[in-house]
Amino acid sequence: MKAVNFLILFILFLDFQGLAQKSSFKSSDPHPRVKSMTEKHFLINADQEPGEQLILSHYYENSFDSFGNRIQDMVYDSAGNLIKVYKYYNTGNLRNKLELTDESGKLMRTIEYVYNEDGLLEYDQSYDGDGKPDKRFVYSYDDKGKVREDYSYHNGNEFHMKFTYTYNFKNEVDRNFRFDNQGNLLEIRNYTYDQQGNIISERVSDKDGNLIQTTTFQYVYDRKNNWTEKTIHKTGKPVILVKRELVY
Fold this sequence. Notes:
By secondary structure, the protein is mainly beta. The protein has a single domain, classed as Beta Barrel (Porin). The protein has one helix and 16 strands.
């Protein structure tokens, strides 16, 4: 049971990371544009017999606008009970606001997105359900429009962490350096990608370069080159399987 709880927390952590550092990595949204998508997350119990290894953790029902941008994510638990809803407000291809509500419709979090004159995300500011400023991420770009640094703040203006990035020849993030609020290097993350531009490995090292953790990702693609299955491995063992059903 402890292992299952850990994996659920790990999944939620991955979701949060994708949300917070959204401008730094290739979008995980499918292309070409789809009308809707169902995404099921399974825990993998390697001790069970084949066919019994998968344990449904939760699933999403995602919908998109005519530009291919997300407009709503509905999250359900394994029994099909609604847990929370993400609503996205967009102008063209730019996201302006995200609202997170619980199963009863109560507002839990709001994130507002502010862009500079070049249309690049300048910062995003989140608020709790009562409207109190919470986390803020501020982005800095190079002359080619790639994120080079971003900074996280808590409680609106309390500096928390700094992230810096380097890129490979395909303009994909290959290294991410994470610093505390005193400028001390905490860890280094190295990424590799497949031909479709999806991450296939993440290696986390400490400030001295000692390996802490390796996560690898395997994909199955459809005829439109969108992945329909993703298997996540931790320290060489499969722990999570994500299955997608896409409606074009």
